[in-house]
């Protein structure tokens, strides 16, 4: 799938992804994946439903769903390059992704965010009703330990 709007291309075609750009953003600019190795980014892309935003052949945004395409999808690694923020690209990306054919009929869509609650609530996301039912193993500074 691919759509164009205002000179931007939104696509789920993995062959368009610019892995080095994605890696640079995640490892250097994101708060959630600092120092992530390139090999980990490559493997995460390989095993996810990925989306990119492009302007003049440059990747300016990215996101991916970890999903079984039947019951569950977890949204992660969502970003828009800082110089392209404020143009509604995140909102357009969410609209493009949430209606993707591989994500229809699931019983749970989930994500974690530090500061984008306003964006995601527009698409039906809300705080967990029973957070005490959720559990996790969190490895702090996981990418620093791999070096």
UniProtKB/TrEMBL annotation:
Pfam families according to UniProt: Acetyltransf_1
Keyword Oxidoreductase in the entry? The reply is no
Keywords per UniProt: Transferase
Domain called N-acetyltransferase: residue spans = 1-140
One GO MF term attached to the UniProt entry: acyltransferase activity, transferring groups other than amino-acyl groups
Domain of life of the native organism: Bacteria
Answer yes or no on keyword Translocase.
Answer: no
Name of the featured protein: Acetyltransferase (GNAT) family protein
Q: Which organism is it from?
A: Pedobacter rhizosphaerae
């Amino acid at each position: 799938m691919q759509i164009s709007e205002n000179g931007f291309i939104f696509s789920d075609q993995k062959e368009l992804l610019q892995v080095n750009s994605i890696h640079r953003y995640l490892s250097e600019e994101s708060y959630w994946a600092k120092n992530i190795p390139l090999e980990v980014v490559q493997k995460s892309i390989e095993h996810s439903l990925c989306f990119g935003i492009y302007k003049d052949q440059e990747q300016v945004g990215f996101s991916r769903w970890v999903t079984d395409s039947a019951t569950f999808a977890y949204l992660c690694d969502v970003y828009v390059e800082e110089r392209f923020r404020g143009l509604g690209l995140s909102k357009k990306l969410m609209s493009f992704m949430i209606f993707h054919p591989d994500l229809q009929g699931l019983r749970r869509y989930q994500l974690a965010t530090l500061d984008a609650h306003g964006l995601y609530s527009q698409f039906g996301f809300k705080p967990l009703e029973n957070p005490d039912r959720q559990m996790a193993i969190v490895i702090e500074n996981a990418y620093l330990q791999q070096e």
